[in-house]
Fold this sequence. Notes:
Elements: H1 3-18, H2 21-24, H3 32-45, H4 60-92, H5 102-112, H6 118-134, H7 139-149, H8 155-164, E1 172-183, E2 186-193, E3 205-208, E4 217-219, E5 231-236, H9 242-249, E6 256-259, E7 274-279, H10 283-295, E8 302-308, H11 317-322, E9 328-334, E10 344-345, H12 348-354, E11 361-365, H13 368-371, H14 374-380, E12 388-389
Parallel strand pairs: 7-8, 7-11, 8-9, 9-10, 11-12
Antiparallel strand pairs: 1-2, 1-6, 2-5, 3-4, 3-6
Helix pairs in contact: 1-3, 1-4, 4-5, 4-7, 5-6, 6-8
Amino acid sequence: xxxxxxxxxxxxxxxxxxxxxxxxxxxxxxxxxxxxxxxxxxxxxxxxxxxxxxxxxxxxxxxxxxxxxxxxxxxxxxxxxxxxxxxxxxxxxxxxxxxxxxxxxxxxxxxxxxxxxxxxxxxxxxxxxxxxxxxxxxxxxxxxxxxxxxxxxxxxxxxxxxxxxxxxxxxxxxxxxxxxxxxxxxxxxxxxxxxxxxxxxxxxxxxxxxxxxxxxxxxxxxxxxxxxxxxxxxxxxxxxxxxxxxxxxxxxxxxxxxxxxxxxxxxxxxxxxxxxxxxxxxxxxxxxxxxxxxxxxxxxxxxxxxxxxxxxxxxxxxxxxxxxxxxxxxxxxxxxxxxxxxxxxxxxxxxxxxxxxxxxxxxxxxxxxxxxxxxxxxxxxxxxxxxxxxxxxxxxx
Length: 397
């Protein structure tokens, strides 16, 4: 977004806020020129044009409404650009890109031109690599697409991603049919893809909301594939997490998300008994493994250790209580709760080692702090390297 476009967008946003009786009271005494200059700089300097609204004393709900006003303005600014992108490509290569897919491809390619963090960039490349194969893009198209985008795309990265991508859709539209706040900072989303998503328990999928065009984040389905095709996603708010914040505070049932091609994380199911160690939303892929085992137990035993800071933050307790099988043992663990009965007290991995039995395959999934050093601790406890499974195949967390 150019400086002129940013100033115009901020001016439109400020008029919307001033017309909102509940929000406008907080503008009294505010230096409008300084506020507009601050937001214009944010829109032109932050990768992806993510707005950074200052705190004006609004409540959380009021702040979200102000953000929604700005996102609406930005979306209206971007729509002609996406349409112009498709028209420019169509003029040179008729039929190369479907018009209905152009906005997603436009946003993703544009986002790729920014310096971005590893997990998001890898998710973005997973989607674009599949799109490159899907639409038969090759180097001859690069110059035309760059001209249409008015920027230079790092095509070598896209080509490498395409070389390792499988065939099939680049994304699956999915309707949000459930949005449940499980506990403070965690939401459980249930989505229904328009076409069945071909994933396996333990995999991760890139997820994008149209509220944050071009920004994709990895999430692990919390269920094994279901007959009705629905997918459950556990989302935790993270600092500066634009996608997670939007999924938690803005997205509602009836809205559309896009799911990218599933990718292995290193948590695929193996034979034999299992010790599963989950921390926070790291529970999602491990719960999916339990559901997969439930479809064919085959005499194996499974112990699931679920760690949280307190009993209240054990966000999926209701669903876990329904997982009643004679081959399954669930051990809740609280690290910062003295009243953790009937669960155990301590960090999840330490408690899990007390439940370790010979010949178990051990899976650990949680925060980076939990995963750091976990392989060494398991090796020191006598677990062979080939029986240790961590989500290290891709930097998805």
